[in-house]
Amino acid sequence: xxxxxxxxxxxxxxxxxxxxxxxxxxxxxxxxxxxxxxxxxxxxxxxxxxxxxxxxxxxxxxxxxxxxxxxxxxxxxxxxxxxxxxxxxxxxxxxxxxxxxxxxxxxxxxxxxxxxxxxxxxxxxxxxxxxxxxxxxxxxxxxxxxxxxxxxxxxxxxxxxxxxxxxxxxxxxxxxxxxxxxxxxxxxxxxxxxxxxxxxxxxxxxxxxxxxxxxxxxxxxxxxxxxxxxxxxxxxxxxxxxxxxxxxxxxxxxxxxxxxxxxxxxxx
Amino acid sequence: xxxxxxxxxxxxxxxxxxxxxxxxxxxxxxxxxxxxxxxxxxxxxxxxxxxxxxxxxxxxxxxxxxxxxxxxxxxxxxxxxxxxxxxxxxxxxxxxxxxxxxxxxxxxxxxxxxxxxxxxxxxxxxxxxxxxxxxxxxxxxxxxxxxxxxxxxxxxxxxxxxxxxxxxxxxxxxxxxxxxxxxxxxxxxxxxxxxxxxxxxxxxx
Lengths: 268, 205
Prior knowledge:
Order of helices and strands of chain A: EEEEEHHHEEEHHHH
Distance between the termini of chain B: 66 Å
Low-confidence stretches of chain A: none
Radius of gyration of chain A: 21 Å
Strand order of the largest sheet of chain B: 4-3-5-6
Number of helices of chain A: 7
CATH class of the largest domain in chain A: Mainly Alpha
Helix content of chain B: 40-55%
Largest sheet of chain B: 4 strands, parallel
Largest interface: A-B, 39 and 32 residues
Radius of gyration of chain B: 22 Å
Shape of chain A: globular
Largest sheet of chain A: 5 strands, mixed, barrel
Oligomer: heterodimer
Number of strands of chain B: 6
CATH architecture of the largest domain in chain A: Up-down Bundle
Strand content of chain A: 15-25%
Mean pLDDT of chain B: 88
Number of domains of chain B: 2
Helix content of chain A: 40-55%
Number of helices of chain B: 7
Distance between the termini of chain A: 68 Å
CATH class of the largest domain in chain B: Alpha Beta
Number of strands of chain A: 8
């Protein structure tokens, strides 16, 4: 897309990369231009006028000058710092996961207002949410749908016949559920239970406030987590690093807990 | 096309260019310029550089106490009897400890983590010097831990995690103040910094 020499936009900061002595390359998700990268000059000096306005996972308003190679951010003003996202490590890591998914899945410079709003709304909901697992699944399914990877869950993805109410197979390659006769002898299949299938359908067709009413058992929630993670990995052809971090975070918590209990036992 | 193609019969030159090119921030042109500078310079100057590079790799190690880079183990700071051993300042990188030292207002000891927790790059506590920190706290009487990680997303994540694991211990955990920088401009401060500056305001005295 052809941009004017100097343009204004709002954006969510997805990622930072150090550049040179005191600069950063910032990856931004904007409503009209989609994912763009721009240089924030001098931002690593504490006296920079932009410092604090361009933190990862903040909603900010920008003035950007078109550069020869990379664009240059000339002004930045924070709109919403999402303070509550930063107060808790597990919420923060989930926020990072949202940003990483958007960064990995969206093409450069292709505006998508639905994705933009989905990201900004989900960051807001994440600050308030008590069940972030459903929220993450909601985000994944809607992001994938918007970008053309909507899981096909109403009928069999191959023969289009309606699915009988039982456990089925999900084909990562075809991006949908297969009926028993179509799934015979195929590879890259994941089991999907009937309950998980129903939850997935509900997530795809409803708004988040409606999805909040879902009460999902732990086993089903874990099943969907696993299925979506594999589906995402299949399409990205790589790991989502913050997803790996989230998994490890939970295991450290229990390990650290044990360690602390042991060290206390030594004292008393 | 590699740099080797330019210098048939002058292999040492190509080798040096390629070695310099591997350094961060050095492009092919800078590597060539540096190489020609070294070719023209005095032999003892070049030798001094080569020896300095080797010395860094051969003589520098991590201090077994604070994990800072040092030539002697324990490092000069950790073996200095005048330092207050009951206060630990936790920093991300050796350069951060150096910056704190320049203030000359901190009399305690450091602990260098060699990085920060970063969910986006899947860098967690086990990739950093956390175990060493916990062992150190087990061994020594520490009454205060100062979290001096950077005030950005990664540094904050690290501080949150540290706070969690230090909470059950009978240790005061503090975080460096965030607020307005010297020579800064109120008008350009972000809300988060301003709010924190308000919370941390102090009496004029």
